[in-house]
Amino acid sequence: MRKFFPFLDWLPKYQKKFLGSDLVAGFTVGVILIPQGMAYAMIAGLPPVYGLYASLFPILIYALMGTSRQVAIGPVAMDSLLVAAGLGALAITSMEEYIIMAVFLAFMVGAIQLTLGLLRMGFLVNFMSKPVISGFTSAAALTIIFSQLKHLLGANIPNSNQFHQMIVNAFQNISTTNLYDLAIGIMGILIIVLLKRWNKKFPSVLLVVLLGGFAVYFLGLEGYGVNVVGVVPEGLPSFTMPAFGMGRASEIFSIALALALVGYLETISIGKALEEKSDKETIDANQELVALGTSNMVGSFFQSYPVTSSFSRSAINAESGAKSTVAQVFSVLLVVITLLFLTPLFYFLPNAALASIIMVSVFGLIDIPYPQNLWKHRKDEFWVLVITFLVTLFIGIKEGILVGVLVSLLVMVYRTSKPHFAVLGNIRGTDYYRNIYRFEKEVIVRDDILIVRFDAQLYFGNTNFFKTQLFKQIEAKGPGLKLIILNAEAINYIDSTAAKMLVQVIDEIHKREIEFYIAGAIGPTRDIIFTSGIIDVLHKECLFVRITEAVKYFDDPANISLLGKNVAYQNRVIGN
Amino acid sequence: MRKFFPFLDWLPKYQKKFLGSDLVAGFTVGVILIPQGMAYAMIAGLPPVYGLYASLFPILIYALMGTSRQVAIGPVAMDSLLVAAGLGALAITSMEEYIIMAVFLAFMVGAIQLTLGLLRMGFLVNFMSKPVISGFTSAAALTIIFSQLKHLLGANIPNSNQFHQMIVNAFQNISTTNLYDLAIGIMGILIIVLLKRWNKKFPSVLLVVLLGGFAVYFLGLEGYGVNVVGVVPEGLPSFTMPAFGMGRASEIFSIALALALVGYLETISIGKALEEKSDKETIDANQELVALGTSNMVGSFFQSYPVTSSFSRSAINAESGAKSTVAQVFSVLLVVITLLFLTPLFYFLPNAALASIIMVSVFGLIDIPYPQNLWKHRKDEFWVLVITFLVTLFIGIKEGILVGVLVSLLVMVYRTSKPHFAVLGNIRGTDYYRNIYRFEKEVIVRDDILIVRFDAQLYFGNTNFFKTQLFKQIEAKGPGLKLIILNAEAINYIDSTAAKMLVQVIDEIHKREIEFYIAGAIGPTRDIIFTSGIIDVLHKECLFVRITEAVKYFDDPANISLLGKNVAYQNRVIGN
Predict the structure, then answer these.
(1) b/e for A277-286, b at 16 or more Cβ within 10 A?
(2) CA angle B433-B436-B439, nearest 5°?
């Protein structure tokens, strides 16, 4: 029980003095949450009020179940874009149906997250490497910025999920720009950017909303064609069952999975980032999945669309001094007040103002220094980033993540398929054996002994490479060769394909009347040597802890310590 | 030139005494090739004569370009099944169109193989691990056996690519069995099986063909409804352009790719297996791709369908003493004679006899001992085999290969995502540091030093795991901890995600006023430590060659050898 509801743990210990901090943080976040929520709902293609609906129950549930004290969840830009991309690909004809699907999507996302959490599959997000996240985020940010162009310009630009199509659409329709909309938008951007430089905590977003609304109202800008939010329905969302259906579920499953993983990734990485700055570690990766999943599921019964942790609001929450998730309850309170009493005020809020809020908040997600750094030191990972970026931008968001993850795994696999293969020599005056090409001057190489080190697990992907390299070195040594020592320190696994190859190779080496020793095999590798038949061709006496001992034994078989033997032969299978 | 046509090298050195061996081997193989070729064409869904067409030019080209001396190429069972599975999925209405597509498929397969060969992508087949090959082959063999049931029974059983559908079809139509067909089939199976036990080189396949034909002719079995091969067109195939077309190419691309890879895999593995038994290594992996690709492409201009190396015929070729690919030229000669003069003889050849030949030859491909062995020692690889087997059997051949390769890569990735993490202690009386759980009695553990070893490359997939495990051990040590030594011998790579994590982790450890040393980093890892910012938080003095030196330095910073320093700090970036 306490595992699934961490508040049972911390609420009894809650101190009165925390309440002030939480109140300030909660209200500060709430003031930003309300305009942001409405703006993000617009990204998702939903009426703005759905951004407020998504700021009620999901946040309350997370306050009870989340393990981070400072993460602020609710509607966010990236996930809203994913919702738009996912639902845009379906044949949906009316806004009612679109809303129903968005809410059902929240249910699906929640169900997937909850399932993954209960199955303790939180580790899955580990497979999104930093280059993939960076490339994906930058591309999504660009897409979001361009998706808001139509609101900023007040122009009739058709939606599209693909960047090049967006650009084409924008150029074709740029003549329909409304200069009043554009002026409001640019003003909004300038206000937020400049005020942020002055004071990060100042609710500049709220100011833009207020100024925009007043301008439209008092200057009668609606008459000049400025697009406004219009009627926002009053009151709280009522309990309604999401529109379950197998056909629907299968239609949106892939986008729900992408949202579930991306959303979780955001929450866990924001949570961990904030935690690192604080003194206490509380985050449990799997419980976060459970909390987020339940938030989305419960939210979907109250017309919420998919939510996750917001980077900007979480940062503001932490900076404003939030001590616990109680802060979030205060944010929700502000949303409730807004929905009950303040909705008429939003009528005159210009869409261009909301677009300016989105553009600025998302612009910061475009990451330039990181790819620059990769370009300098890690060309392979740089290309993973670029591929992820381009696929996300020009093909699609889901595809971007998928291709990114696959390509980064392929890079890893490719790397292990042609690992570093070093020929070692004795460093003069020591018992170290090191790469002869790195220590050319200091190294002594014997003609009768070939010492090699293979720097990867031995598995099906590199068995041929290992064999080829080894025999190339054997040929190079010539007929004087009497002993091969394989330094196995860096061979952390041997799969069955590789074990078979190793048996064959050792057999062939023995046929050439050359001895074969293995030095430095770690425990798990020793176990495999003893179970997979390698020991049958190798014999126990040919296992050593270190190369230097192998060489000594070769020169004088009497020269071997009992202790060394015990360490070299130890395994979990046959015993010492 | 010599690279692409190895015969230019060996033909001038060809010795007269080889001719006898090659003649015997070539005719022995040819006698089996003719009935096998016709039978395999039946598997592919083609008229039997196309098996003979596929035994002409492809074999001649391979004789000129191949690097193995004993591989016998031509039509084979597995690839014929792939052809049937691939073309069966297309909307082809007439046999003429089917033949055109099969020939075009050969062209595509050849083009892909040639391209891969010229790009030196032969290493791709390394990714088909032994469990995948075994599972795939066993499933394909079962599929082939059941696909021949209709010929063996003489029953009207509709074709299907899926095993369960085949079984259903067979049961529904078993009543249409023709007992004469069945009798011929069972006789054929018994003859081949029993004669093989007696003498492996005896051309039992030819005997079955002859006996079957005579039985039908002299006993007038055609009148009893026995299905026969019927009219086989006389003469050699003429030069015809394959039916090129982009639409067609894209339709069959995936099956062509599967055929290209599977075919190549068969050739290279058969070639290597035969080579291991002989004294000389001649096989060049990429030239084999070029040779096979050219064979298929040239063949397609003379009505050949996709070919590759046959396991049974290659074995017979080697056992019969083939010295060079000249043997194969004699096989082709026999096929030419057959096509020119002997086709009328095949009229009475019963299909059931051909089916019996296929069933026996393919039955041997079902591999039982290997999965048994995996079950004992490698549960993970056993499941890879079973998944590949089941997907191949019940979903499809292409899908089986694809899923098999992906699953085996996933297993590899999963393994590296949760690698072995060992806490080390000093083994009494030595300077070895080993896993405290493997050497519980012999080990000394100091309260102020935590020594850990991580047995995998550090990459995005396991950074979180590393961090979690490390801090778990730090917590377990308690406040007396003053030094952490990371044994990096088995860390063969650090990617950018992991490097970032390592910097953070070292920072955090320093904040707790604990020192952090790295011991035993190999060359490539040292380079990364120096380029990726790790050195900025770590300082050069914290790098050591061995744990024992790190411990000595910690106890007395004056106690460090210059030689040790030079080795520990060596890198390709900043210099010593």
Answers:
(1) eeeeebbbbb
(2) 85
What are phi and psi for residue B449, nearest 5 degrees?
-125, 130
Instruction: Provide CB contacts within 8 A for B5, sequence distance 6+.
Output: B64, B65
Nearest CA of chain B to the CA of A558: how many Å?
19
The residue with tokens 């080889």 is B18
Q: What is the pLDDT of residues A370-382, one digit of tens each?
A: 899 889 888 889 9
H runs (alpha helix) in A446-495? 463-477
More confident: B316 or A296: A296
Alpha helices in B148-221 (DSSP H): 149-153, 163-173, 179-198, 204-219
Task: Please choose, from the candidates B20, B48, B22, the residue with its C-alpha nearest in 3D space to the C-alpha of residue B33.
Answer: B48
Which ipTM was obtained for this model? 0.76
Helix, coil or strand: residue A200: coil
Burial label for B235, CB within 10 Å (0-12, 13-18, 19+), is: exposed
Q: Which of A82, A53, A65 is nearest to A11 (CA)?
A: A65
How far is C-alpha A437 from the geometric centre of its chain's CA atoms? Answer: 39
Is pLDDT above 70 for A277?
no
Tokens representing B196? 């093989």
* pLDDT (0 to 100) of residue A265: 86
Interchain pair B490, A495: CB under 8 A: no
Could you tell me the two tokens for B114?
Answer: 């040639």
How do beta strands B515-519 and B543-544 pair?
Answer: parallel
**Which residues between 484 and 523 in chain B have a beta carbon less than 8 angstroms from any beta carbon of chain A?**
489-493, 495-497, 500, 504, 508, 520, 522-523
A121, A497, A511: best mutation site toward chain B, by most B Cβ within 10 Å?
Answer: A497
Asked if the C-beta of B570 comes within 8 angstroms of chain A's C-beta atoms, the answer is: yes
Q: How many CB pairs under 8 A join A and B?
A: 187
Task: Please provide the size of chain A in residues.
Answer: 576
Q: Amino acid identity, residue B184?
A: I
Q: CA-to-CA distance for A351 and A362, rounded, in angstroms?
A: 16
User: Mean pLDDT over residues A173-193, rounded?
Assistant: 90
Angle, helices A369-377/A379-394, rounded to nearest 10 degrees:
140
Interface check for B432 against chain A (CB to CB < 8 A): the answer is yes
Strands (E), A410-512: 421-427, 433-435, 443-444, 449-454, 483-487
- The pair phi, psi for residue B423, each rounded to 5°, is -95, 130
The answer to whether the beta carbons of residues B434 and A568 sit under 8 Å apart is no
In whole angstroms, give the CA distance from residue B508 to residue B491: 21
Q: What backbone phi and psi angles, to 5 degrees, belong to A178?
A: -100, 120
Q: Which of A416, A455, A492 sits opposite B524 (nearest CB)?
A: A455
Chain centroid to CA B445: 47
pTM recorded for the entire structure: 0.75
Q: What angle do CA B477, B483, B484 make, to 5 degrees?
A: 75
Both structure tokens of A466: 């290992």
Q: How far from chain centre, in Å, is Cα A402?
A: 12
Of the residues A413, A453, A457, the best mutation for testing chain B's interface (the one with the most B CB atoms within 10 Å of its CB) is A457
**Looking at the complex, does the CB of residue B276 fall below 8 Å from at least one CB of chain A?**
yes
Q: In B, which residues are within 8 Å of A495 by CB distance?
A: 129, 378, 381, 412
Contacts of B122 in chain A (CB under 8 A): none
Element (H, E) at A321: none
Minimum-distance CB partner of B126 among A420, A442, A460? A460
Cβ–Cβ of A460/B497 closer than 8 Å? Answer: no
